[in-house]
């Protein structure tokens, strides 16, 4: 057997690295050709990047926005085919492009004769190929064809060149006849539609908060996992679900409470196979006569409102108990003032918070022992044991969490944008505030990067201290994913006086209006200050009140556009194009059925954030930097071949 080693003469570390590259480029010509190709790729237009934040379980709206490329596909198609399509044909082609699977399924049910199917496929194939050629021209061929479905890659490469002098109508006709005969013509149209969508956006970045408030966070993740190039930035709702999936009891109760409050139970029982029967039993027995009027859910459903309200209250009380236990075992957090259960005076019906006494709206605590208020009752412990088992053994939930962690991070740098979910914790003067992680007091960029290590470690080892830290990321005052001094859940549930509900935001959210502060943050994360833009979600922009997502500094933008219907039903996509950065504002989306049947589309309002004098090329981006590093390595490989430090193969 031939030894795969390329050299035995010099046991050098440098050569060991180059030998790995030599497997792919075994001789001088192969290495030179690849270096030339990469040098040329640097001159191509940069890929289009879409950034969306705070989806909050709105799966259908997200699906449509991904399908129509945040509204950027419609104007492109209208421009390309303005002279060759009437309005009716244009709408038909747009609907096919946005929903290729659904449309081709309907066409297959309507058209049954092979000649009808062939005629439809031939009519759609022409504009699909023209649009595909346009989109592919902006990519390197290797990058574009990587997105092609493997089984049809060679066929697509052939028909992309048709019609031409060598490939006339009979070429496409022969191909189409065989596909019709094999009942695959509509399948090809479907694949082309999906390919067009995938090439319209080079990279999709989700800047946090996939779950909660909307109906199906599980389907949001299902759809994102189908996208060819997606990156996730973690939000506090994401680490909440991560902690619950790993069995953290306080976070399990929080997930249940929020899901019950918004009646989003389908994602639990249907999506993740987490039955709510144990919690319902607790509500129907221990809380049987409790009116729970301050826990009434939003919306309607199969279970009576009173039962859902009691379930929510039961989950909330368990959450407060478990959070109190956790805060006690983590004294370094300095959160003892948020242990509230022992501050309740059950005889007077009052509670003391931050030294002030408040009357309680609800004094029925059937599971609370005033002498030991943080201990779960026997019934609560039994209920939680069953629920925890379901969370830990949900295969789909575990798979989605592994995807989220594997494709996720605390921040990303794209072009001139620094993207993260929440904030950089600071004091009123803009000094970065430290948080203890693994015994180290860290702030700024170091804090973000150390948090990434803990999150990745938690999903592997599930140590109690790491799972507790996930809770802190969810709602701790110095968590970059939260950015407030507290989450006043108990106050909102049990106290009428709204002064107790106040949650003070981190100074970051006011300081990003100042240029100097933005420059300080950009510099901390290794970004250029000239042209740099901070991008975060987390705090919904109050669109209806006229609030602008772009801050006064012009160097920071908030892209949480209240995507969820529970928040306002708007939403933003930040689109990073070669010649500009634009913000697309989305509106309400009716349904997939209406989109297919009536051509209903979300046509966004577009606002220019940055306009460049000349379009940016691949060489101007992070991808361009990685390409330059690769070219340098290829140059070293070529030199090693030419000096005989490595032996060529297959020359």
UniProtKB/TrEMBL annotation:
Which biological process annotations from GO are given for this protein? gluconeogenesis
Report the GO molecular function annotations.
fructose 1,6-bisphosphate 1-phosphatase activity
- Name the EC number(s): 3.1.3.11
Q: Which InterPro entries match?
A: FBPtase_class3, Metallo-depent_PP-like
This protein's record includes keyword Transferase: no
One Pfam family named in its UniProt record = FBPase_2
| Record key words, sorted | Carbohydrate metabolism, Hydrolase, Manganese
HAMAP family, sorted: FBPase_class3 (MF_01854)
Q: What is this protein called?
A: Fructose-1,6-bisphosphatase class 3
Species source reads Roseimaritima multifibrata
């Amino acid at each position: 057997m031939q030894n795969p080693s390329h050299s035995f003469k010099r046991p050098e570390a440098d050569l060991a690295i180059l030998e790995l590259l030599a497997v792919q480029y075994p001789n001088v010509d192969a290495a030179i050709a690849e270096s030339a190709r990469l040098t040329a790729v640097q001159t191509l237009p940069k890929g289009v990047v879409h950034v969306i934040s705070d989806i909050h379980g709105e799966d259908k709206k997200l699906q449509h926005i991904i399908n129509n490329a945040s509204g950027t596909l419609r104007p492109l198609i209208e421009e390309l085919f303005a002279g060759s399509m009437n309005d009716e044909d244009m709408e038909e082609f747009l609907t096919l492009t946005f929903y290729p699977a659904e449309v081709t399924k309907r066409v297959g049910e309507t058209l049954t004769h092979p000649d009808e199917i062939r005629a439809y496929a031939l009519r759609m194939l022409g504009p699909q190929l023209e649009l595909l050629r346009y989109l592919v021209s902006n990519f390197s061929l290797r990058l574009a064809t990587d997105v092609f479905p493997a089984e049809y890659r060679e066929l697509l490469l052939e028909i992309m060149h048709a019609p031409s002098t060598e490939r006339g109508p009979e070429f496409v006709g022969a191909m189409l006849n065989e596909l019709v005969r094999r009942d695959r013509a509509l399948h090809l149209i479907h694949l082309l539609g999906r390919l067009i969508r995938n090439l319209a956006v080079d990279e999709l970045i989700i800047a946090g908060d996939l779950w909660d408030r909307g109906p199906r966070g599980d389907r949001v993740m299902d759809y994102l996992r189908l996208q060819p190039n997606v990156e996730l930035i973690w939000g506090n709702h994401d680490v909440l679900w991560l902690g619950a999936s790993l069995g953290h009891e306080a976070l399990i109760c929080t997930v249940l409470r929020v899901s019950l409050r918004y009646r989003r139970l389908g994602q639990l029982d249907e999506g993740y196979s987490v039955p709510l029967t144990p919690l319902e039993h607790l509500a129907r027995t221990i809380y049987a006569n409790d009116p729970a009027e301050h826990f009434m859910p939003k919306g309607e459903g199969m279970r009576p409102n009173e039962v859902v309200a009691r379930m929510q209250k039961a989950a909330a009380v368990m959450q407060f108990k478990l959070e109190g236990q956790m805060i006690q075992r983590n004294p370094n957090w300095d959160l003892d003032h948020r242990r509230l259960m022992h501050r309740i005076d059950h005889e007077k019906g009052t509670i003391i918070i931050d030294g002030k006494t408040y009357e309680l709206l609800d004094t029925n605590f059937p599971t609370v022992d005033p002498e030991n208020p943080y201990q779960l009752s026997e019934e609560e412990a039994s209920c939680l044991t069953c629920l925890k088992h379901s969370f830990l053994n949900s295969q789909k939930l575990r798979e989605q969490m592994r995807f989220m962690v594997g494709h996720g991070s605390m921040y990303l740098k794209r072009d001139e944008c620094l993207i993260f979910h929440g904030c950089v914790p600071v004091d009123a003067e803009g000094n970065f505030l430290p948080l203890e992680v693994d015994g180290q007091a860290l702030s700024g960029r170091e804090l973000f990067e150390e948090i990434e290590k803990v999150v990745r470690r938690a999903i592997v080892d599930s140590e109690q201290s790491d799972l507790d830290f996930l809770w802190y990321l969810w709602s701790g005052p110095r968590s970059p994913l939260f950015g407030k001094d507290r989450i006043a859940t108990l106050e909102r549930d049990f106290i009428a006086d709204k002064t107790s509900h106040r949650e003070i935001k981190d100074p970051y959210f006011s300081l990003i209006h100042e240029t100097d502060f933005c420059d300080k943050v950009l510099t901390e994360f290794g970004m250029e200050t000239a042209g740099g833009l901070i991008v975060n979600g987390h705090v919904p922009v109050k669109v209806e009140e006229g609030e602008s997502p772009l801050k006064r500094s012009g160097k920071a933008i908030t892209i949480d556009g209240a995507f969820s219907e529970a928040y306002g039903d708007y939403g933003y996509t930040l689109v990073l194009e070669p010649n500009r950065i634009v913000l697309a504002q989305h509106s309400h989306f009716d349904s997939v059925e209406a989109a297919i049947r009536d051509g209903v589309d979300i046509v966004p309002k577009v606002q220019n954030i940055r306009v460049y004098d000349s379009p940016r090329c691949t060489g101007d981006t992070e991808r361009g930097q990685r390409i330059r590093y690769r070219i340098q390595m290829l140059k070293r490989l070529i030199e090693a071949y030419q000096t005989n430090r490595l032996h060529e193969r297959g020359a």
